[in-house]
Amino acid sequence: MPQFYVINNPLAGSGRHQEKISKIKSQLTFASWQDTTFAGQATRFAKKLAKDLPDVPSENVILAIGGDGTLNEVLNGLLKFKRHNPIPIAYIPNGSGNDFARAAQLGDANESLSRLAKIRSSQLLTVGKIVGDAPKKQTRYFVNNLGIGFDAAVVSQTNHDKWKARLNKFGLGSLSYLFSVLKVFANQNSFPVTINSGDDYLNFPRVFLLTLTNQAYFGGGIALLPEAKLTTYGLDLVIAEKMSFVEFLGMFLALKKNGGHLKFKKVHHLKMSQNATIHVRDIQPGQADGEELGNGSYDFQLTFEHYPFWI
């Protein structure tokens, strides 16, 4: 049996899941349990575990409990300390959007807890990595997606919207993303993007959404790229050019129709190569797995690699 080192975000899902946490504690045998109290603390906890636990083949597993942002923090913490034997990540979704759980078909918190008892080995999933200005100099990993422009503005609007907490109380957290979409669209300006990927040099002068994705979903279940899978070794890029509200509404409605939005003339889908570069010459918001990167310009190199997940 694995030794679970738990990192739990008690504020995930607006803190409405205490009964689930009590059940997890009563049914799960764990080596340690750490609750976060502020943003970024999960990264610190994970980095310390990566540093302190012996770098040898073992049954140690880091269990993240929370939303996609908590999972992102744990991933980044573990990868801040280089190991020959990376520690697998397990996950119990307890947030609002839960896009990773949806893509990995983990089910809800209760189903994910039951699955843990049946897993015997980790599997390798692809994680993306950016190095450069985003918007300040940094290295950042992501397992779901990284967005600049419209989707990042929606994430920011949703995270700071009083309705998110209210909807979470009724298990309707995903609706908060939909409300934010309409609020953000009118204020989102276009911006120029330059991409170097393999032999391709591409210039898009009027982008309003740029999303690097590792899986099908973003924004609490919106099917951005239905064909994308966490196990595929590679990353995809979806770009949408500035469009009228009528065009946007048509594209948004097509998101629910198995990728119909990808047929729109102003929507582009690209397979990204290792060491591709992306340059955004404008001040824009950014997000990685629902975690805000802040506002700024972007100039970074993109790579991808495998990491073990206990799912």
From TrEMBL:
Domain DAGKc: 1-134
Needed cofactors: Mg(2+)
Assigned keywords, A-Z: ATP-binding, Kinase, Lipid biosynthesis, Lipid metabolism, Nucleotide-binding, Phospholipid biosynthesis, Phospholipid metabolism, Transferase
Position of the signal peptide: none
GO molecular function: ATP binding; kinase activity
InterPro entries in the cross-refs: ATP-NAD_kinase_N, Diacylglycerol_kinase_cat_dom, Lipid_Phosphate_FormReg, NAD/diacylglycerol_kinase_sf, YegS/DAGK_C
One of the GO BP terms on file: phospholipid biosynthetic process
Pfam families per UniProt: DAGK_cat (PF00781), YegS_C (PF19279)
Similarity comment: family membership: Belongs to the diacylglycerol/lipid kinase family.
Protein name per UniProt: Diacylglycerol kinase family lipid kinase
Native species: Leuconostoc pseudomesenteroides
Lineage, uppermost ranks: Bacteria, Bacillati, Bacillota, Bacilli, Lactobacillales
